[in-house]
């Protein structure tokens, strides 16, 4: 018998064993989801300064003066080391578009959007009011969030995993089988800022702001081995 023939016979003999060991084991899949709602402890307010002038230089200069006053006012409320930063800046020409005529340059517009981050949500209304008084003429919404969302993620994940496992056990009980090892576990997250507020520029004693809740939704999909 040649070596090649001997190898062929050997492979034929172990092929059924390989098929048995590589065959996919039976399993039950279970899906669980859980949502944890918490109050946000972080807020970001976008305040903008929009200025217009006949020339780009005049618009930019006027904008710089008002934005500097805005930043100074914000730091007076939030502290000298507060997280206050520019998130967008632009200078653009403005035109009029008469019916049936050509566009006519009317001047230039400068825009500077400043974002103020705070962990004391009780001062949001004051920040808006002070900002408007200092020269902000645009409020581009309020974003709420969490300084650290990992503990909430973990809490939601544990609850989702428990629900997925309970569903697997319920299915196994209904089928009259026993469960074994966990073959696979997949996780997923969805962060939902339930309340995002925007404020008007109306002069008021204190701009009211409601933070709402911050929802963290976790999902877990399990594949658990079936033991006959």
Question: In one word, what is the shape?
Answer: elongated
Strands in their spatial order, largest beta sheet: 3-4-2-5
How many individual domains? 2
Largest sheet: 4 strands, antiparallel
CATH superfamily of the largest domain: Protein of unknown function (DUF541), domain 1
Q: End-to-end span in angstroms? A: 43 Å
Tell me how many strands there are. Answer: 7
Question: What is the helix tally?
Answer: 4
Strand content: 35-45%
CATH fold assignment of the largest domain: Translation Initiation Factor IF3
**Overall pLDDT level:** 85
Structural class: alpha+beta
CATH architecture of the largest domain: 2-Layer Sandwich
Percent helix among the residues?
A: 25-40%
Question: What series of H and E elements makes up the topology?
Answer: HEEHEEHEHEE
Name the CATH class of the largest domain: Alpha Beta
Write up this protein.
This protein has four helices and seven strands. The protein is α+β, with helices and mostly antiparallel strands. It folds into two domains: 24-39 and 149-227, Protein of unknown function (DUF541), domain 1 (Translation Initiation Factor IF3); 42-95 and 105-145, Protein of unknown function (DUF541), domain 2 (Alpha-Beta Plaits). The protein has a four-stranded antiparallel sheet with strand order 3-4-2-5. Strands 1-7-6 form a three-stranded antiparallel sheet. Strand 3 and strand 4 form a beta hairpin. The protein is elongated. Mean pLDDT is 85; it is low at 6-11, 17-22 and 195-204.
